[in-house]
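Much of what follows relies on a compact textual record of a protein's fold. An example makes this concrete, so a full record is given next.
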Amino acid sequence: MPRPRLTPLLVAVGSLALLGRALLPADAVPAVPAIAGMSDRVVLLDPGHGGYDPGVIGPGGEVEKEIVLDIALRLRELLAAAGVQVVMTRETDRHLMDPEEAARLGSRKRSDMEARLRLAGEARPDVFVSLHVNSYPAPRWWGPQTFFNREGHPDGERLAGSIQDSLNRTVPGADRRANPRNQLFLLENLDMPAVIVELGFVSHPAEARRLMDASHRDALAWAIFSGLAGYFLAATPLSGR
């Protein structure tokens, strides 16, 4: 599979930014100017897992919590350069679990999830984007996919579709659709547009190798950034606040 290629964002002041047709090499992430219409937005980035919880681990030792944190930090740089205020649930390899709460709830994972919900409630972001990595027993499945809760905020589906379309444009051969998914704790309990982005399958040998490649991580960060830009610049009101 060829290396990912990036689609530059063409920005016109006072008008909708469009995704350009020209392609750049995967190791040449375009510089991002401040973008009118994005500087008043707040994005909460949630790199999944962390600390005691590694997430899924690929056959070659690829660790979900490390992959998603690195891509989230790359995405934060792009968003900040565009004037977006970025809040992160974690910036280092740590969990958010509170031992006393975990004991009361009988679950470390539930305590960690509750802490992420509280951060979202305090930050009141326009959108919530949680980054994860997928795994499946059959190694043939691959490709990034975005999930939303159909019963959640009405703009969640549009947000998921914008990010998924951008991922499909960026990752050669990717053709998945944004998928509604119930019974995902975070998506069920957030009242702003929220998505979970599964960045690929560590159970697929070739994709696992790509997820460990810096240029592919840059491409994924750029794709999510472009999807967020398309979502924000197509909407007039602030959705989450």
User: Anything to note?
Assistant: Residues 1-27 have pLDDT under 50 and may be disordered. The chain is about 35% helix and 15% strand. Residues 3 and 163 are 20 Å apart (CA to CA). The longest strand covers residues 127-134.
